[in-house]
Amino acid sequence: MELDLAPPIREAPPNISATFGGGISWLQWIVDAYALTFASLLLSGGFLTDRFGARTIYLLGIAVFAAASLACGLAGMICGPLAVAGFILVERRAKQPLIPMEIFGLPLYRICLFYGFTVNFTYYGVVFIISLYLQKTLGFTPMQAGYAYLPLTATFFLVNMLAGTLVGRFGPRAPMIGGALLDAFGFLTLLALGATAPFIALILPFMLIPAGMGTGVPAMTTAVLENVPPEFSGVAIASINAARQAAGAMGVAVFGMLAGNTPAEVHGGLHKAALISIALLLLAAIAAMRMPQIRARPEEKITAE
After folding, report:
1. Residue 134 lies in a domain
2. Are 256 and 25 contacting, i.e. CB atoms less than 8 angstroms apart?
3. With left for phi above 0 and alpha for psi between -120 and 50, is residue 76 left, alpha or beta?
4. Residue 211 domain flag
C-alpha cells in the first residue's frame, strides 16, 4: 500500500495558487516536498521488510502514518530535499548500505529502474501541466477538473485488474513494451488539444495514458520480484519505487518550467512536455526489448500507482 500522488497533482495546484498566491515554481515545491520525502523513506521500508517481515512493517507503517497525519496538522512537514540529502550522506558512509551494490550488477534490474523512472517522470510531470491546462486554459473549475479525470481513474482501475493476467500469460517483457508504446501514443493524442477543447477530446488521452502505465508498471514489478535474489527483493522493489517517486517530483519540476502563467503558455508547455514524454517512453520500450523473456507466476497481481 502507498499513497497516490496523482490526485493532489491533478486538482489542487491551480486552486492553491488562487487562494494563497504564488507562481508555478511555488506550486512545484509543494508537490515535490511530499514526493521526495516519500521516495527517500521507501528505501528504508524495503530494507526493514527484508529484515523483519512484510506484515510487521505494514502494521508499523499504518501506525506511523496515523501518528504522522496528526503531527502534520500540528507541526507541518519535513522538507523532502533535506531527507534525500541526509539519506545520501548516511548511505555513503554506511558499512552495510540499504541498497546492496550487487543488484546494480543485474541488467534486468537496471532496465526496470530506468523504465519505472521514465514512466513516473512523464506521467506526473504531464499530469501537473494538464491540471493547469484544464483550469487556466480551458477555464474548468477544480470540481470540473476532477470530473474530467474520471476516465483516467476508471481506466487505471480496469487495467490493473487485467495486468496480472497479461503478465501471467505473456511474461513481463511484452506488457512492458506494449505499455510504454501505449503510454507514448496517449501522450501523442495530447498534441491534438488546442487552446479550446471540448470535454470529449480529453477522453482518449485520459484512457490511453493510464492503460499504458497500468499495463507496464505491474509487469516491471513482477520482473524484478522474479529475478532478484529473495534476500534483496524488498530493497530492490523499494529502491525502484523510490526512484519512481523521485522521478515524479523531477517531472513536476522539469515540465513545470515549460508552463508559464498565461493560458497560452500553459497550452504550449503541455505540447512540449508531451513531445519529451513520447521520446522518453520510446526509449523505455527499447530498453524493455532488451530484457530476456521471463514467465511469471500467473497469480501475481500488482497495481500501477
Report:
1. yes
2. yes
3. left
4. yes
* Cβ-Cβ contacts under 8 Å for 137 (sequence gap 6 or more): 195, 263, 264, 266, 267
Sign of CA dihedral 176, 217, 250, 156: positive
* Domain carrying residue 281: 101-289
Q: Distances from the Cα of 123 to the Cαs of 12, 18, 241, 277, 300, in angstroms?
A: 16, 24, 14, 8, 24
Using CA atoms, how far residue 83 sits from 34, 40, 153, in Å, is 11, 7, 31
**Residue 151 grid cell:** 476516465
Q: Which three cell numbers, joined as nine digits, stand for 68? A: 504522522
Q: What is the CATH number of the domain that holds 265?
A: 1.20.1250.20
Count of alpha carbons within 13 angstroms of residue 78, beta-carbon side: 16
Structural domains of the chain, count: 1
Q: What is the pTM of this model?
A: 0.72
* First-to-final CA distance of the chain: 10
The whole-angstrom separation of Cα 54 and Cα 234 is 9
CA pair distance 182, 209, nearest whole angstrom: 7
> Is residue 4 included in any domain, yes or no?
no
Which DSSP symbol is given to 191? Answer: T
Task: Write out pLDDT tens, residues 192-240.
Answer: 999 999 889 999 999 999 999 999 999 999 999 888 888 888 888 888 9
Q: Long-range contacts made by residues 72-78, C-beta under 8 angstroms, separation at least 24?
A: 77/33, 77/34, 77/37, 78/37
**Is 91 a domain residue?**
no
